Amino acid sequence: MKKKFLIIMCKNKLILRKPESNLFELPFYIENQIPNTPYYHYFFESNNDYGKIIINAIGKLRFDKLSILIPDDTLETDRRIIQEFFMLHCATRTPTIIPQCSLLSNTDKNYISISRSCRCISIWYIKNNIAIASRFLDKDIKDISFIKENIRVLHADCEYGNLPIYINNIEADMSYFDGLGQLVSFDELLKVYHESL
Predict the structure, then answer these.
(1) Given 50, 69, 100, which residue is the final one in a domain?
(2) Quick one: which of 143, 142, 150 has its CA closest to 173?
(3) Residues 55-80, buried b or exposed e (16+ Cβ, 10 A)?
């Protein structure tokens, strides 16, 4: 049987699940971190031991199937950093990378996703479970009408505001946006992930 492993990337930590075990958190505190820079940009810095930290956290196991749930503002360069780091330290083959925005609903196939990272607020239009249009706003914006306007012009399908809105709340820090749409908790995101397998 293949060993399956799940990693959920959050703002300043990884949440890990080894096969047949509970979730556990692995926080990352970067000394002199450049503002608005994700911690995973430091994975290959010469003055850190993140590879050893990962190996200590999961043991010296190598996983045949590794899924990584990534933040919604992850660039292609970020994906390469993430894939290469985990291939080097715990995967036997290329990890499956899944944007969190595609796992916010198991009932609606078309919806708007809103999330916030250390860099920005991400707004995605998800159609048939595929992210097809996006906008990125300043991470500190709290003007709901401005966010609604950005949703309206995101894609022609969004113009009339009839799509459900799901808000990634896996770190329980998005309650300000509660009136804009449905908050999705960490447990709800995991449930959608497991149902999608």
Answers:
(1) 100
(2) 142
(3) eeebeeeebeebbbbbbbbbeeebee
**Angstrom distances, CA of residue 138 to CA of 33, 111, 142, 167:** 19, 22, 9, 16
pLDDT score of 61: 63
| Amino acid identity at 119 | R
Q: Are residues 95 and 110 in the same domain?
A: no
Q: pLDDT tens across 78-128, in order?
A: 999 999 888 888 777 888 999 999 999 999 999 999 999 999 999 999 999
Question: DSSP of 67-135, one letter per residue?
Answer: EEEE-TT--HHHHHHHHHHHHHHTBSSPPEEEEGGGGS-SS-SSEEEEEE-SSEEEEEEEETTEEEEEE
Question: pTM of this prediction?
Answer: 0.91
What is the rounded distance in angstroms from the CA atom of residue 8 to the CA atom of residue 67? 8
C-alpha–C-alpha distance, residues 122 and 174, integer Å: 13
Look up the CATH number of the domain holding residue 130: 3.30.420.40
Q: Tell me if 195 is assigned to some domain.
A: no
The parent domain of residue 156 ranges over 103-188
For the chain, the domain total comes to 2
